[in-house]
UniProtKB/TrEMBL annotation:
The lineage of its organism: Eukaryota, Metazoa, Ecdysozoa, Arthropoda, Hexapoda. GO terms for cellular component: extracellular matrix; extracellular space. Belongs to the peptidase M10A family. It comes from Photinus pyralis (Common eastern firefly). This is Peptidase metallopeptidase domain-containing protein. One of its GO terms (biological process) is collagen catabolic process. Its cofactor is Ca(2+); Zn(2+). Ca(2+) 1 binds at residue 181. It comes from the Eukaryota.
Amino acid sequence: MNYLAYLFPVLFQIQNQTDNMNKSMVMNYLHDFGYLPITKATDNEMKAALQDYQYFIGMKPTGEMDNETMDMMLRPRCGKPDEEKERTKRYTFLGNSTWAKKDLLYRFDSYPLGINSNDVHAEFKRAFNAWAKYVKMSFKLVQNTETSDISINFRSLDGEGRSIGYALHPTHGVVILDKDETWTMEGEGVNLFQIAIHEIGHSLGLGHSSKRSSVMYPYYLGYNRNAGLDIDDIKGITTLYASHTSDARSPKGDNTELCRDPKIDTIFTAPDGYVYVLKNNQYWKFLPNFVMVDGPDLIQNRWPGLPSKIDAAFTSWNNVTIFYKGLYMWKYVLNKQFGEPKLIEDGYDKVPSHIDATFIWSGSGHLYFFRGDKYWMYNSYKPLGMRVKYIFPLPIWYWNGVPNNINAATSIGGDTYFFKGRYYYKYDSMNRMVYAGYPRSTAKNLFGCT
């Protein structure tokens, strides 16, 4: 009797059952963390969800369930879904919710095993202070019998591994850490400070970041004795709480020239997370909430080989900064020029030269160019020759309230800023119109001039 004839169908059936089980587990995982709206999906829906997941966590978005992807899914992580996965920014917000008050109280309702409560208090205090350094807020520990804004609990989530923490966004004020983990101050186990600073970020309104060096990256990548806020975290929290820091306008640099004549050449966010303002042959450096941190300095000192009086600039999602002037454009990677200057028409089909402004708009994720009374949308995901639709250019009046002949523009967080002369216009990307009360004085409201 040929037993193999009977064995092969059985083995094939077992393999199919295993594949279906693995597929079901992956679907559930992608559903739990915000990549699939349902737990049953077609192969195409599954592939698209995997691509979104892989892209967000910093892997090549193949859409295939390879070993690297499986290894990442098996790592412990925050239990909160990766709710916003835009390709044009790293830090994300949890619905733009924030605390209106500046003095928050927190308490512990339970503690982990194996760590003294005083040590737990010390680690959380250190984590709260890391965020407080960049926003004008205070955090005070109170007894568990007192009313608080944020309660901290250690309780079972899903057993050891996978979800190790969870937090609700403002103003719910709940932080939960999995009591089944082996919590430690350093070395083996799960580091308490690293998870505390992450979950506190959620409780302040930040979502997950796709940047691995960010404390808001969803996965625990092991103990890091130098753990602390990355520039991505600082950019996110200062953007979210700009109103809390709006009175912190004492520039560390010299704003004299910007106060004398606030008309600028261009403005953009660089890969380091800071906002740079360029004017003539100089630049100034700001936090995303427009608190000055440095400048002026010569453009040549930071971007060697770049000419003065730049027309426009932006930083792409892969951290390449592109500058435009006249007919030409320059590419820089980490402040070093990449290749020779090239004609704009050679790099972008159907995009004009001598542009007024350019930026990646958070409302669509596409690149926009402005000149005079017209604008162009450039879709880099389309094949060459099809990246600018035939309907462009379109009149600027489609951007409700934005004037013609702007000098500069940039998108920060969910808002876009247009600059013309001594004034700026803040654009509401959600409602697609300039906010009420604009234009406003650039010198007074953004550059800290009195």
